[in-house]
Model the fold of this input.
Amino acid sequence: MEKLKENRTTDDRIIYELNTTIPTTSFAANVNVTEKCKSLFDMVLATHSLRNQAINQCIEIQAAKTKVLKDQRDKDPEDYKVRKQLGREQTTLRLFQQELTIENIVQERAKKAFYERCRNYYTPTNAS
Done:
């Protein structure tokens, strides 16, 4: 979870990044704004992809752990340790699923900020 927070710094600071990367209209003639927007968008898209892959991998692993514990619980419903561990693993699985939702919100916010600042200079072809 901490690694995700570290990887979100670009998205959390997207407005700052855009403001420092893209000059105001009066200075835009001195800089290749299209290239700067494209490189920033590519960087943001790459980090989005990496984080999505990491979260989905964590969800898959956690779901597998949960399934194993559910099977163990079904075999012996009275085993308190298994039931307790299953509850912990299910909570962790829900946390990862919530992270995926949060990630989608963070990505939409970053894309919106990018669009608002770069729309006159660069329009991504694969912006989804």
